[in-house]
Amino acid sequence: MPAPRPLRPNRTSSLVALATIVALVASFTVLPPLSAAARPAERNSTEQRELLMRLLADTNLELDRRILAPIGDDVPHQLVLIADLPRVAPIVRVRAVAALAYFPNATTQRYLTSILGERGNLGTDLGTRLRQQALRSLAVGFRGEAVEDILTLRRDREPLIRQSVANALKDAGDPRVLPVLEQWLGAEPVITVRAAIDDAISTLRGR
To answer: Within a domain: residue 175?
Structure first.
């Protein structure tokens, strides 16, 4: 299964998202109407988490920092909590991991990296999806800074994860990994993974 793609904004989806946020905020009886008195900073952590979960559950809604950041100052922390809650729907957890790419800091990088080696994520469908998206989010959010963490999974036993590693290295855009990719290409036994490695090499060489 290919790695989930990042949540890319467009003008239409941004307008829809803003309208959705207004509607959702209005649905919270504990919150005042959207006005000067209803600033994001006044939403407590629980309110921010509930609003985030509703937005993440709408799979037709493309999210980015411009949509998520105005919800409140605690958004990155709440995204980590949502991604880590077993009772939350799998698609919401995966989308929370994707959204963390828009909030790069030491805490989110540490959390995304922890997903890669989490024992509970090994050998399960959801675990694979979370690891794939964590690789993608590290690449998009941290670029070359995350390359070493991404490379730790190039020998993973799951071909889907190795393929996601190659895709993430391409997205990170750091040409310093070219020698590693070239060596890996010659040793990789799975054709779909080799294709992803070859694509990463071509992209990083500027072809």
So the answer is: no
